[in-house]
Amino acid sequence: YTQDCGFRPLGDAAPDIKTDRLRVDKDNTVLADRELLDCDNLKHGGKNGDPPPVPLLKKLVQCLLEKPSNAGQDGAERMNLTEFTIGAPHKWRTYIDQGQGTLNTNVYPVHIKFDTKKFFYERNDEVVGREETVTCFADADNLWQCGWASGPHKEGKKQEYLVKP
Predict the structure, then answer these.
(1) CA dist., res. 60 & res. 55, Å (int)
(2) Considering the entire predicted model, what is its pTM?
(3) What CA–CA distances, in Å, run from 148 to 27, 91, 131, 151?
(4) What are phi and psi of 40, to 5 degrees?
(5) Which of 44, 69, 122, 139 could form a disulfide with 76 if both were Cys (CB 3.0 to 4.6 A apart)?
(6) Which has the higher per-residue pLDDT, 128 or 10?
(7) How far apart are the first and last CA of the chain?
């Protein structure tokens, strides 16, 4: 069975089509299935040498992907962290670590497992069980930053949902 064809081989089971309800606001902007983080106004002050504040780092990692739809449009994306493991810190490595760090900057590698879901007018796309590595550090402006890094990686399982009004 393929979406393009619409036929399935004789004797095979019908595809499992999952559905979601369309959620929009008064401007017809597609909403996610929960309140999203306000990443633009997230206070993330910090200082190199201090241990990382785990609740803040979790929000910064979520802000790497989480975003609302633009007004009157679709495309909102939410991220739910399922595992968050901070590794042993290391000093800044030039040409490997990216951002506003110096040789004295402590960098914290973080292995994360998470699920994402994108919300559209006609379908929603979900990825479950994705794994990535990020690094977090307090930059030269004394702000905690997190970004994607090399390390263990897993794509996760994709699922599409038909959206009904």
Answers:
(1) 9
(2) 0.86
(3) 34, 17, 11, 9
(4) -70, -25
(5) 69
(6) 128
(7) 26
